[in-house]
Amino acid sequence: MPGDPKECREHAKRCAELAKAATAPEARDQFLSLQMSWIRLAADLDNAEALIDAMNEMDEEPPVKAAESPLCQCCYLAELRFLLQRSSTSRW
After folding, report:
1. What is the pLDDT along the chain (92 residues), one digit of tens a residue?
2. Distance CA 92, CA 89 (A)
3. With b meaning 16 or more CB within 10 Å and e meaning fewer, what string describes 39-66?
4. Using the 8-state DSSP alphabet, how is residue 23 labeled?
5. Is 10 helix (H, G, I), strand (E, B) or coil?
């Protein structure tokens, strides 16, 4: 994936250093704004990478059968009713 969150954080750190050293308030504000932009970009890249990893894991795992999936009690009862209805109508 293009973009490295670590590199973005390094740029953010450098902007913070430049803001601290700036003598003009406008320059300091600009460097602080750039720092926040780099931090947001790093977070966005982290989130995108996590999403891609999760999607890849989903592609690698075999599908879970309904009977094997953990169900809450309400969903379990609904599925049980459905299966009972289906089995009682299929016999006739």
Report:
1. 468 999 999 999 999 999 999 999 999 999 999 999 999 999 999 999 888 888 887 777 666 565 555 667 677 677 777 777 766 654 44
2. 6
3. bebbeebeeeeeeeeeeeeeeeeeeeee
4. S
5. helix
